[in-house]
Design a protein that fits this description.
Number of strands of chain B: 8
Largest interface: A-B, 29 and 30 residues
Largest sheet of chain B: 6 strands, parallel
Shape of chain B: globular
Order of helices and strands of chain A: EEEEEEEEEEEHHEHEEHEHHHEEEEHHHH
Helix content of chain B: 40-55%
Oligomer: heterodimer
Radius of gyration of chain B: 25 Å
Number of helices of chain B: 24
Structural class of chain B: alpha/beta
Distance between the termini of chain B: 24 Å
Structural class of chain A: alpha+beta
Chain lengths: ~400, ~500
C-alpha cells in the first residue's frame, strides 16, 4: 500500500455536459463515453431506521445515520457477468422481525469490508469513509502532556469527536431537482452546486449504475453551507451562451458555433469546480481491488479556501472510476485548521499562539468557541474568559 | 385544399389596442389547446388549475364575445367545458345583441362534448349554485333528449340526478321512480332500470349494465375477474376496450379485440408508448400496432384536406416528455402521433428525435433535451416547414435551440446554391406553463402553439399564421367567425367532433 501522498483530484476520462438548473440547484452531468463495465457499484440498503454503529477498529466506533452502503464489484474481463450472489445474504428463521430492535443502531463492521466468499468485491459506507477520515484527523490528542490539558484529553484524545451535516431530504428543492433532472445516456456522475457553491461530486464507473443510484443522492449528507444557501437563494440564473449572428454564414458554421457553446459550458463547469479540482489534496489508500485502488482524501485545511473531503476509486492508468465528495462547512474547516496548527506546534498552546499570531488567551477562546473546550482544564478556560472581560 | 404555410400579407400597422387584443386572444387559444388542469412534469395540478382559471376569468372579463367564440376553435374538452361554465355563470353580462350567438355556441358545445364531460359540467353548475334561466333551459334540453336519456340516467346517475333536481326538471317516464326513495322496491318497465335494480341482488343481472356501473356491482357480488370480464365484453365501448387491454390479457389470457385503426392517432400513440417494454419482445404485435397507427394517421390526414410541403419535424423524447402521474407520457405520445400524422400528410417528411431512435414505436422518454443538434440536422434537409414538438425546456445546451432557430431565419443562401426561402418554423408545445399563461416558448421570435392532439396540427398552423407578425386582428376575427359558422352550421364537421378523441 502506498504511503499518503498529495495530488489533484482529476476527472480523467470524463467529460462535463451543459448544466441543468432546477431552482437553486445546478446539476452538471458528468459523462463517460466508453465505460468498459469491469467495475460495477450497487446500492445495498441498511437498516430501516438508518442509525448505524460502525466498529472502525478495536477502539473506535463511528455513529451516524447511514441508510445505504455501496457494494463495489470488479468483473474480470472476458468472463461476462460476475458473481451475482447477494452481498451479506443471511438465513433467518420465520419468527425474525426486522423492526424488533427499533431505535437501536444496527452494527456494521468497518467502513470498508471485503466479502470472504467473493474476493472481487467489497462493501463500503459511502462518504462516511471520508467523514471518518476527517473525524480521525489528530483525534489522538496532545502527544506531550502540557499542563493545560485535562487528563481525559491525554488518555482518550478528542473523543467523542462530533461533526454535524444535513441530510439531503432537508435541502430545500433537492428532491424536486433530482426528480426533474434529465439523466444523459452516457452519464456516470453529477456535480451538485447550490447557489453555484460546489456541494458534492458523485461519479460512478458505469452509466447503468449511475441511473440506479441517481435517486439515492437524496439520502446523502451535505454541508451546512449548502443547506443555508438552499434556504437563502430560491433560484440561480441559468446563464446563457450567445452565438454571434454576424459571424455565422451557413448551417455548417452554425453547427460549429453550437459545438463551441458546449465547450464553453464545459469550461464553465471546470471554473465552478475549481475549488475541488484545482487544489492539492492528501490521499490515503484504503483498499485495492485488482487494478483499482480505493482512496480517501482531505483538502489542505485552510479557512480561506473551499475544503472538500471525499473518496475515490482509480484505475491503474489514472482513470477515475468512483468519486464522492463532501464540502466541509466554514466551522468544520476552522476546527480542522486549529487541530492542524496545534499538532504543528506539538500541542503547546504558547507555540501555537505564536504560529497563529495571537495571544495564548485568544487561542484558548478560539479553541473553546470551536467546540474543543473539553480538552482544556476549567481554570485555563476561566482565565482566558476573564482576560477577555478585563 | 389549403396550404399549411401562410402567405405574407401586407397589413397596416396595428394600434396598441389591436395588438394587445390579438396577443391576448392567441395566448388564450394556445392555453386552451394544451392545458387540461392536470399535473405536468414541471408543475403540479393545483398550479395548473389556478393559472388556467385566472386566464379564463381575464379573457371573459375583457373579451366576452371572443371568449365564447373560442368554443368553435376546436380547443380541448376541458377548456370547452370551462368556457361554457364561465359563460353560464355570468349570463347577465351578455350584451343583448350577442345573446343568441352565445346560446347557440354553448348548446352546440354541450352536444359535441363527450357525455361524461357534459354531465359533469351540469353537475358543477348545480354544485356552484348557478341557476339562471339560461342554465335551466340548457340543462332541461340536454337531459330530456329521448335518445340517450335512460342510459345516461343509469351510467351517470349521480350527476344526472343532481343536475335534474337543480333545475327542477320534471322527471319523465320512470325517471321519477328511478331517482327517488323506494326505487329498490318496485319493478321497472324500462329494461335498463330493471337490470340496474336486479343487479343489486342478482349477479346475473350485472351484465346488462354499462361497464363502469357493472364493475362496482360485480365487486359487491364477488364475481371472479375472469368471469366478469368475459361476460361484460359485449357492453364495452371502444375506449373501455382499449383501457382494459392489459387487464383482459391478464385474466382472460387474450386481449379484447379492438379495431386499433379506428382510434384517433394520438390516443393510439398514447397506448403504444405505454407498451414500449412489452413491444420489444413481441415483433408481431408491434407491426400490427404500427400498421394501425399508419392507417389511423392517414385517415386523420385525409379528413383535413391540408397540403403539407416538404416537412421536417424535431421531436422531443427527453425525460421530461414522460409527463406526470396524471398525464403519463402524454408529451411523448403527442410527438409520436405527430410523426406518423405528418408522414401520412406531407409530400416529403423527415423526423429528428432529440436522441436517435431505431424504431419509432419503441421510443421511450430518456435523456436530456438536446434540441439544437436535431434542429441543425433538420435545417440540412432544407424543409419548407419545420415543426418542433417539445415542452420548451431546452437544456443541452440551455437556450441554444432558440438562437439556432433565430439565426437560421436570417441566413442568406450560399452563393451558387439554389435560392430558397428559410423554413416556416412553428413550435408545438403539449405542456401549459403555469407562470407564462401559455405553453412555454423557445424564443419570442418563434411562433409557439399549444397542442393537445396531433390531428389538430392543420388548425394550429392556421392560428400560427395569426401568431406570426404578419396577420392583423381583423383577419383573426374573421377567421373566428368562419369557424363559428362551421361549428354551428355543420353538425358533423369532422374537425370539431374529432378533437380529443
Amino acid at each position: 500500500m502506498r504511503a499518503p501522498y498529495s495530488d489533484l483530484v482529476r476527472l480523467s476520462g470524463l467529460r462535463l455536459a451543459p448544466p441543468q438548473v432546477l431552482g437553486a440547484v445546478r446539476l452538471i452531468p458528468i459523462c463517460r463515453d466508453e465505460a468498459p463495465g469491469d467495475l460495477r457499484i450497487h446500492r445495498q440498503a441498511l437498516s430501516k431506521e438508518g442509525l448505524q454503529r460502525v466498529n472502525v477498529d478495536h477502539q473506535r466506533f463511528y455513529h451516524s445515520y447511514i441508510p445505504h452502503a455501496l457494494v463495489v464489484q470488479g468483473i474480470a474481463q472476458g468472463t461476462g457477468e460476475g458473481d451475482e450472489a447477494a452481498f451479506g445474504a443471511r438465513f433467518v428463521d420465520a419468527s425474525f422481525k426486522e423492526g424488533k430492535h427499533r431505535g437501536c443502531p444496527s452494527i456494521s463492521h468497518r467502513m470498508v469490508k471485503g466479502d470472504k466468499n467473493a474476493p472481487n468485491r467489497f462493501r463500503m459506507l459511502p462518504l462516511h469513509l471520508a467523514m471518518e477520515g476527517f473525524l480521525a484527523y489528530q483525534m489522538r490528542g496532545p502527544e506531550i502532556m502540557w499542563s493545560e490539558y485535562t487528563k481525559d484529553a491525554a488518555t482518550q484524545g478528542l473523543s467523542p469527536r462530533v461533526e454535524t451535516s444535513f441530510s439531503g431530504t432537508w435541502l430545500p428543492g433537492w428532491r424536486e431537482a433530482l426528480a426533474l433532472f434529465e439523466v444523459h445516456p452516457q452519464q456516470v456522475g453529477v456535480m451538485v452546486l447550490v447557489a453555484d457553491a460546489l456541494a458534492s461530486v458523485f461519479v460512478t464507473s458505469h452509466p447503468d449504475d449511475y441511473w440506479s443510484l441517481h435517486r439515492s443522492l437524496i439520502e446523502d449528507f451535505y454541508g451546512a453551507l449548502i443547506y443555508e444557501y438552499g434556504l437563502l437563494y430560491p433560484s440561480v440564473a441559468i446563464g446563457e451562451t450567445r452565438i454571434d449572428p454576424t459571424k455565422v454564414k451557413s448551417v455548417a458554421e452554425l453547427r460549429a458555433a453550437v459545438a463551441q457553446t458546449r465547450r464553453d459550458w464545459t469550461e464553465f463547469g471546470e471554473l465552478l469546480s475549481a475549488g475541488l479540482l484545482q487544489r492539492e489534496v492528501r490521499f490515503e489508500t484504503v483498499r485495492t481491488l485488482g487494478a483499482f485502488t480505493l482512496e480517501r482524501f482531505i483538502a489542505d485545511l485552510d479557512p480561506n479556501e473551499e475544503c472538500h473531503i471525499g473518496e475515490r476509486i482509480v484505475r491503474e492508468d489514472g482513470t477515475l472510476e468512483y468519486l464522492k465528495t463532501f464540502r466541509l462547512s466554514a466551522a468544520q474547516v476552522r476546527r480542522g485548521h486549529l487541530l492542524k496548527q496545534l499538532a504543528a506546534a506539538d500541542w503547546s498552546l504558547e507555540a501555537c499562539a505564536e504560529l497563529l499570531r495571537c495571544t495564548k488567551d485568544e487561542l484558548v477562546r478560539r479553541l473553546s468557541n470551536a467546540g474543543f473546550g473539553y480538552i482544556l482544564k476549567p481554570h485555563v478556560l476561566a482565565a482566558a474568559q476573564a482576560g477577555q472581560r478585563s | 385544399m389549403t396550404s399549411a404555410i401562410p402567405k405574407k400579407s401586407a397589413a397596416p400597422t396595428p394600434t396598441a389596442r389591436e395588438r394587445v387584443e390579438r396577443e391576448d386572444l392567441l395566448m388564450f387559444i394556445n392555453a386552451c389547446f394544451s392545458c387540461t388542469g392536470q399535473r405536468e412534469f414541471y408543475s403540479d395540478g393545483f398550479g395548473q388549475s389556478v393559472s388556467i382559471d385566472f386566464l379564463h376569468r381575464y379573457i371573459l372579463g375583457n373579451y366576452r364575445l371572443l371568449y365564447a367564440r373560442t368554443l368553435a376553435c376546436g380547443v380541448n374538452h376541458f377548456n370547452q367545458a370551462m368556457i361554457a361554465l364561465q359563460l353560464l355563470r355570468t349570463g347577465k353580462d351578455t350584451a343583448p345583441a350577442h345573446r343568441a350567438e352565445e346560446n347557440a355556441l354553448i348548446t352546440r358545445a354541450l352536444e359535441t362534448l363527450p357525455p361524461h364531460r357534459a354531465l359533469h359540467l351540469l353537475e358543477r353548475l348545480a354544485k356552484q349554485g348557478i341557476n339562471n334561466r339560461r342554465t335551466r333551459a340548457l340543462t332541461r334540453a340536454f337531459l330530456s333528449q329521448k335518445k340517450d336519456r335512460d342510459f345516461r340516467a343509469v351510467k351517470y346517475r349521480r350527476a344526472f340526478r343532481k343536475a335534474a333536481a337543480h333545475v327542477h326538471l320534471p322527471f319523465a317516464g320512470e325517471l321519477g321512480a328511478f331517482f327517488t326513495k323506494g326505487w329498490q322496491d318496485r319493478r321497472f318497465q324500462t329494461p335498463l332500470f330493471e337490470s340496474f335494480r336486479q343487479a343489486h341482488y342478482a349477479a346475473a343481472a350485472v351484465y346488462a349494465l354499462p361497464f363502469s356501473i357493472a364493475e362496482g356491482l360485480a365487486a359487491k357480488h364477488k364475481i371472479p375477474h375472469a368471469v366478469f370480464l368475459q361476460k361484460i365484453a359485449p357492453q364495452l365501448t371502444q375506449n373501455e376496450r382499449l383501457r382494459l387491454q392489459e387487464v383482459s390479457a391478464e385474466h382472460l389470457g387474450e386481449r379484447y379485440a379492438i379495431d386499433a385503426t379506428r382510434l384517433p392517432p394520438t390516443q393510439l400513440a398514447s397506448y403504444i408508448v405505454s407498451q414500449t417494454e412489452a413491444l420489444r419482445s413481441d415483433a408481431e404485435r408491434k407491426e400490427l400496432l404500427r400498421h394501425a397507427l399508419e392507417v389511423s394517421a392517414r385517415r386523420a390526414a385525409g379528413r383535413m384536406q391540408t397540403s403539407f410541403p416538404n416537412v421536417a419535424c424535431v421531436l422531443d423524447r427527453s425525460f421530461s416528455s414522460s409527463g406526470s402521474n396524471e398525464k403519463r407520457k402524454r408529451p411523448l405520445a403527442v410527438a409520436l402521433a405527430t410523426s406518423f400524422y405528418l408522414r401520412a400528410a406531407a409530400r416529403a417528411y423527415q423526423a429528428f428525435w432529440t436522441a436517435p431512435v431505431d424504431d419509432e414505436l419503441l421510443v421511450f422518454p430518456r435523456g436530456p433535451t438536446n434540441l439544437a443538434n436535431p434542429i441543425l440536422d433538420a435545417l440540412d434537409t432544407e424543409p419548407d416547414l419545420l415543426l418542433i414538438v417539445s415542452d420548451g425546456f431546452d437544456n443541452d445546451p440551455p437556450g441554444v435551440a432558440a438562437q439556432v432557430l433565430e439565426i437560421a431565419q436570417t441566413l442568406k443562401p450560399q452563393p451558387g446554391a439554389e435560392k430558397r426561402k428559410p423554413p416556416f418554423v412553428v413550435h408545438l408545445n403539449p405542456v401549459y406553463d403555469v407562470e407564462g399563461y401559455a405553453p412555454k416558448a423557445l424564443s419570442a421570435k418563434i411562433t409557439t402553439m399549444g397542442i393537445r392532439d396531433a390531428e389538430d396540427i392543420p388548425t394550429l398552423l392556421l392560428f400560427a399564421r395569426f401568431a406570426s407578425e404578419d396577420a392583423s386582428l381583423e383577419e383573426l376575427l374573421n377567421h373566428l367567425l368562419v369557424r363559428v359558422k362551421t361549428f354551428l352550421g355543420n353538425a358533423t364537421t369532422a374537425e370539431t367532433t374529432e378533437v380529443d378523441g
